[in-house]
Amino acid sequence: MKTYNLTDKQILEQLEEIAKNHDIDLTEEIKKITKKLENSDTVSRVWEKVELARHTDRPRALDYIDMIIDDFTELHGDRYYGDDPAIVGGIGFLDGIPVTVIGNMKGRNLKETIDRNGGMANPEGYRKALRLAKQAEKFGRPLITFIDTQGAYPGLGSEERGIGESIAVNLREFSQLKTPVICIVIGEGGSGGALGIGVGDKIYMLENAIYSVISPEGCASILLRDSARAKDAAAMLKITSKDILSMNVVNGVIPEPEDGAHTDPAQTAANIKAQIKADLEKLMSKTPEVLVKYRTKKIREMGVFTEN
């Protein structure tokens, strides 16, 4: 006997036709299939964002630094253990304004990805970031961070050297920095690895970036008990820029080409630069005490809700 596998859309069309032609009430059945189709569309749209955020040709932190910052000089080392290439940082000029820049650096090819540990930093990376942030505070330079990591590196050496403590210290110290801090999620914003350089006065996401407490694969493995359901987990996590903005976790979304930043890096960099310049003009007019006051207020209000 020959069998036919109908898609949900085909079944929905047939049910609607039967209901219309035979005057049968199939409202509940039609609602169930319609909801299933809507959920499927949502999952597909969210996963497209995940794939764009992880695209191998997507511009990395150093690419944006090269396009936005003049006379950039990279600085190395945490003065405790060593240098971590997964986090880059240094000083330069943004249209004449001295700035400090820090960013997670994924590789542009296989060799660089291995060398930079896929942008997943060890404790020395976060301690280097803190050293540069404190230096920026000392000399009155605004701080700009580019976030792009699946998370901090969870390896044995990383744990031995205090990865949790290094991120926790950064959360505390970045919240109290007496200089303007602007953070931008340019690709993946994963968990504590992103937060380690992601506390600021203004936080933005590129349109096709993602930001989450855990990776879709990690969530699927732990909560759904099936790593193959990463796409479903991504939709459940609400990780797109639109979702994150609706929850007031970020201040805004910076537009990029519809097909991804990699299709026009120069335009995306120009959009980022325009946003940074607009914010710096306002933030640099505020006293350090006012900056810290309102940054702390913003952090404490995150996640607060009123139950009626």
What does this structure look like?
Helix 1 (8-22) runs antiparallel to helix 2 (27-53) and helix 2 (27-53) packs across helix 10. By secondary structure, this protein is of the alpha/beta class. A hairpin with a 2-residue loop joins strand 2 and strand 3 (97-104). The protein has helices at 8-22, 27-53, 61-68, 110-115, 123-139, 156-160, 163-175, 191-195, 216-222, 230-237, 241-246, 265-283, 288-301; strands at 70-74, 87-94, 97-104, 143-149, 181-190, 202-206, 210-212, 252-254. The N and C termini lie far apart (59 Å). Strands 1, 2, 3, 4, 5, 6, 7 and 8 form an 8-stranded mixed beta sheet that branches.
Number of helices: 13
Rg over CA atoms:
23 Å
- Which structural class matches the secondary elements? alpha/beta
Terminal-residue CA separation = 59 Å
Biggest sheet record: 8 strands, mixed
**Could you spell the SSE succession in H and E letters?**
HHHEEEHHEHHEHEEHHHEHH
- Name the helicity range: 40-55%
Structural shape = globular
Strand content: 15-25%
Mean pLDDT: 88
Poorly predicted residue ranges: 1-6
The number of E-state strands comes to 8
